[in-house]
């Protein structure tokens, strides 16, 4: 299983977030620590995540969803985002719109 690592400005503070899949759910570590109120905020953002590629909404309990949220809505300003391992991909089939 993979993980997503992102650094950016979050409510005026520069933080690094690591999203991992653990015990059947997405867990985020903020500067290598669990921070419950930030996890709750992240979980709420996952529920209202934007579409990827204009039409695809990843499963809420996936690292692809974590990537989507960290890239698009979590940070005030995203500085860097990277992926280690497999986090899934947007499905693609010729002549099909998701």
Would you mind describing this structure in some detail?
The structure is a single chain. The protein is 24% helix and 33% strand. The protein has one domain (3-84). The protein is α+β, with helices and mostly antiparallel strands and 98 residues long. β2 and β3 form a beta hairpin. It has a 4-stranded antiparallel beta sheet with strand order 3-2-1-4, covered by helices on one side. It has helices at 36-47, 63-74; strands at 3-10, 13-22, 25-30, 77-84.
Mean pLDDT, to the nearest integer, reads: 93
CA-to-CA gap between the ends? 24 Å
- Largest beta sheet: strand ordering: 3-2-1-4
> How many structural units, i.e. domains?
1
Shape: globular
| Helix-strand pattern | EEEHHE
Output the radius of gyration.
Answer: 13 Å
Largest sheet: 4 strands, antiparallel
Q: Which segments are poorly predicted (pLDDT under 50) over 5 or more consecutive residues?
A: none
> What is the overall number of helices?
2
At a glance:
This protein is α+β, with helices and mostly antiparallel strands and 98 residues long.
């Amino acid at each position: 299983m993979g993980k997503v690592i992102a650094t950016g400005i979050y409510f005026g503070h520069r933080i690094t977030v690591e999203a991992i899949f653990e015990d059947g759910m997405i867990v985020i570590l903020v500067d290598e620590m669990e921070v419950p109120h930030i996890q709750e905020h992240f979980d709420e953002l996952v529920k209202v995540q934007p579409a990827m590629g204009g039409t695809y909404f990843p499963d809420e309990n996936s690292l692809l969803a974590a990537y989507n949220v960290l890239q698009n809505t979590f940070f005030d300003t995203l500085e860097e985002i990277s992926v280690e391992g497999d986090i899934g991909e947007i499905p693609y089939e010729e002549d099909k719109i998701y």
